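During the no-cost extension, the postdoctoral fellow (Dr. R.K.) reprocessed legacy sequence entries with the updated structure-token encoder. One reprocessed record is reproduced below for audit purposes.
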Amino acid sequence: RHFWGWLNAVFNKVDYERIQAVGPDRAASEWLLRCGALVRYRGYEKWQQDYNGLPTGPLGKYKIEAINATESCIMYRGFDYLDGLEHVTEIKLQKCIYIQDECLQRLSETKNLQKSLLQLKIISCGNVTDKGIIALHKLTNLEYLYLSDLPGIRQKETTARVLQEALPKLELELDLE
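Re-encoded structure tokens follow.
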């Protein structure tokens, strides 16, 4: 178990020089795919899942529009890769064992995501609590939030009310028991 934690820390280490060299979308794509996530680019239907098959082309041509981090090993340490992404409209975090409240707080404080993110799904992430969900109130353009199988959510009604008050246009779908 210690080995996997170390390996995940290596996968999530941010390479700021790489971000400068290839741009934020390419660098974030590399990070996400290395960690087992999928990305979809603006104007494309296909999900990119093969690190070695990442498209090449002019710097900045491929802009990440959607992230599917199902069963990926993304963790807080790598979230600096998200800072430069300007076109992400949807993120799905499902069965991400390293996602915790601090990750959601960091996500909601990312200026570009505050503008662009419209849909967020958080499913079966056992380390997420009410605190992390409430932190999402800074995602002011969020239109849809789906929460399912989150045992750390103890105050379902209160958490939902706080979010709805902060984000009146939010469609909040809960599947929490």
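The two ends are 30 Å apart (CA to CA). The chain has one domain: 1-53+61-175. The remaining legacy entries will be reprocessed before the final report is submitted.
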